[in-house]
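re: that chain from earlier
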Amino acid sequence: MTVLVECPEDNWRIYVPVRMSISMPLVTATRPLSRGSLVEAHDVTMTMVDKNRARRGGFSDMNNVVGAKLKRNVKLGDVIERNDVCVVCRNEKVVIRAVKGEMTISTRGTALSDGSHGDQVRVKNDKSQRIIEGIVTGVAEISVNF
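^ sequence. v structure.
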């Protein structure tokens, strides 16, 4: 893109080529992290990242990543992307919370698929053996509205 720069007092102007980039704050790794490890607060930081570098969507809140399990190796400075972590991981125990207004009922279950914050996942209730769908709301936590 070209931008006009001018100084009316000295009666000059010039067109200058410029390159623009859009940066956004995203969660990045502060050290190399290996697959299967849990992400801790000291493992990540917020960094201004060029929007083109975060193609698959990263996290803008560290709380959505801390406590999650890595599904692949992450290098120092890499953006932690949605496909890199599972907040709820397949075949792991989760807490199922059924919420209706002020009332909340909790039980244990087993996740049948991986999921990140806001994803819909299938869960098997350990007591009733029924399979239900819920939304990932936290580390090892599913919410169901009834």
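DSSP finds no helices and eleven strands in the chain.
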